[in-house]
Amino acid sequence: MKARWLCGVCIAVVAGCGSDGESGGGGTTVNTVTIEDGDDPDRDRISNKDEGGATANADGDEYPNYLDNDSDGDGISDGEEAGDADIETPPIDTDGDEFPDFLDTDSDGDSINDTTELDINYATVDTDGDGILDHVDLDSDGDGIYDVFEGFDDTDGDGIPNFRDLDSDDDGISDELEWGGAEAGDRPQDSDGDGFVDALDLDSDNDFIPDSAEDPNGNGLVDAGESSPTSSDTDGDGTPDIVEVTAGSDPGDPSVTISAGDFYFILPYDGPGDLGDLDFTTVVQKADVFISMDTTGSFGEEIEAVQTALEQTIVPGIAEVIPDAAFGVGRFEDLPIEDFGLPDDLPFELLQAITTDVPDVVSGLQALSPTGGGLDVPESGYEALYQWATGVGLPDFGWGPFAPPGIGGVGFRTNSLPIIVHITDTISHSATDYSDVGITTHSKADALAALGAISARVIGVDSLEHIGAPFNPRPQLEELAIATRAVIPLNSDGKCLTGVDGTEVPPVDGACPLVFDVESDGSGLGQTIVDAVAQLATLGELDISTRTRGKTTGLQNEVVTPGFTTADFIKGVAPVPPPPTGSTIDGEVFRNVVPGSTVEFSFDALNDFQPSTEVDQLFDADIEVLGDMVTVLDVRNVFIIVPRAEQSYNIN
C-alpha cells in the first residue's frame, strides 16, 4: 500500500544541474514532493484524491479533509462512512446526490441530519435491526414510511422522534397500518388532505372522531361497531360518522342510518343558510301528580282508600304510562270561622311537596285524617287550588307563604306536566261567600288564572255523597277540568268513560271533561286515579311548540362568539303541514294535538356570528318539543358544522 504519513511540503535539495534541468553557475534546483493519489494520511480508507486534495475542508475546521477523520463534522467517522475498507474504491454516496457520505451531513437524503440520527452518545444506531445504520437507512424504524416523510419531530411527545417511532401520533394504530402505501418509498396517505399524513394525524379523516376511537383495537380493520379512521362516512350512507356515532347509529352499517340533513347543519360563516325538517314524538314523558284531598269528616273512607292504594296501585299504574312521574299531597277543609268551618279546619295545607321518593309520599298520605264535620258545606276548594298553584298563603289569617323549591305552591318540577287530582264530595265556596262577611279570599277566577299560569291540569274526582243535591260538585269540577284543558275526546259510542268503575256518562259540549265518579265508600278510588291520569296523558290534547337550548362551547372545546350560544344558529321554526288529525297550525305552534302523534317542524339555520378558523368547528344544540310550553315531550340533538376558512366542506 502506498499510503504514508508525509508532511506534504516541498523539500529543497541542493544538487548540481545538468542539461536535463540542472542549473549551472552554482544555482540550486528545488524538487517538489507531492501527495500521491493513493495516499491516506488520516487512515480513513478514503484516498486523498477522493478527499479533495490538500486544500478541501468540508466542515471548515482547522483540518483539511485528508487529515480529518470526520470531514463533514457530523459525528460519524469518515472510515465508517467510506462504505468499505478498500482505498481504491470510491467512497459510497448513499443518496446519489454526488456528495459521498463522508462529505454529506444527510447521507441518505431523508432531510434528517446525520448527527440527529445518532444516539445520545453520538454513536451510530440501527433502530430496526435491519443491518443498515439509521443515517443511511431511508426507513430507520422499518414501518414502511420513509424518514423523509416522518421527520425528526416528536409528534406524540414520548421522547422518540417520529422516524424512530412505530406509532408517531400515539393513537394506538401503528404507522405501518396508517401508511397506506404498496411499495417502499410510496408517499404515506393523507386521508383528509390537511397536510398531515395519517401516521402523524390524530384525526386522519377530519370527521371529528379521534382515530383511537374509530379503531380502538388498533388493528387497521373496521370491526363491528367501529368506523374507519380514513373515511368520514364509513358505510357510505350519506350521513357522516360523527352524526351516526353521536346519534347512536352504526357508522359501519349502511342499513342502519339517519336521513341526510336530519341531525346536522353545515353553516359557513356569512354563507348560505340551511334548512332541515325534523320529526318529533309527542308522548308525555314527565308529569307531577298532586293529590288534593277533601279531609272533612265525611271523607274517612276515601282517605283510607288512597292511603291503601298508593304503593300497590297508584304509583306503579301511573309509571306504566308516564316514565318519570312524581307525586305530592295536600288537604283542604274550610276556613276555621263560624258559619264556614270547624275550629280545627284548614283552607289548605301542603303535606308533601312533589317528590319521586315514594316513602315520603306515603308519609304525606298518612297525615291525611278527617277533621270531623262534613255537613258544613261548601268547602274551600277554590282557595286550595289557588294555593297549590301559587303558595302565597293567606297572611291576613296567619298562613304565610309556603312554596317549596320548584314551580307553584307544591314544587312542580321544571319540564314536567302539572296535574292536580282534586278529590271532594261537595262544591266550593265562592269568594263572595266570604266577602259578604268581610273575609277576603281568592276567587274561582283567581284560581283558574293561577292554574293557567303554570299550565296545570285539574282532574276532578266526585265521591258520590250529594248526587242530585245542590251541593253536587260535578258541575264545578267539570268547569275546572274544561278551563284547565283536562278534557279528552268522546269514545266510539259518543260517551265518556268517567262513571263509577269506568261506566259511560254523557259528554259535556261534545267532549269529556276528566271528572270521575267513585262510590262514597271510596272503593276503586286508587284505580280511578290511575285511569284518570292515564287518560289525560294519552288523550288530553296539548299545544306543541319548540325550544332550542344552546351552549357556549363546541364539541372540541371551540368557544362560541361572546354574546351568543349555539341556539342562535337556529333563526326560524315553522310547523310542517299537514297537522295531526284534529289539530291545527297557529304560527309556530300545533294546537290541540293528541299525545302520541308525530309532528314535523322545519328549522331555518344560518351562521352570521361564528367566524371560520383554520379547522372545522363542531357545535350542537338541543331542540326540545314542548307540550303546553311546560313539559318536554321529545329532544333532538342537532349538530352544526362551521367549515374551516377558505375551504369547502365535503362531508361525503
Might you state the CATH topology name of the domain at 295-540?
Answer: Rossmann fold
Uncertain runs: 1-37, 647-652
Mean pLDDT: 87
What fraction of the residues are assigned to beta strands by DSSP? 15-25%
Tell me the total number of β-strands.
19
- Please estimate the helix content: 10-25%
**Strand arrangement, largest sheet?**
3-19-18-13-16-15
Shape descriptor = rod-shaped
Specify the CATH class of the domain at 295-540.
Alpha Beta
Report Rg.
45 Å
Question: Could you say which structural class the secondary elements and strand pairing correspond to?
Answer: alpha/beta
User: In CATH terms, what is the architecture of the domain at 295-540?
Assistant: 3-Layer(aba) Sandwich
**Could you give a short account of the major beta sheet?**
6 strands, mixed
Oligomer classification: single chain
Number of helices: 12
CATH superfamily of the domain at 295-540: von Willebrand factor, type A domain
Roughly how many Å apart are the termini? 70 Å
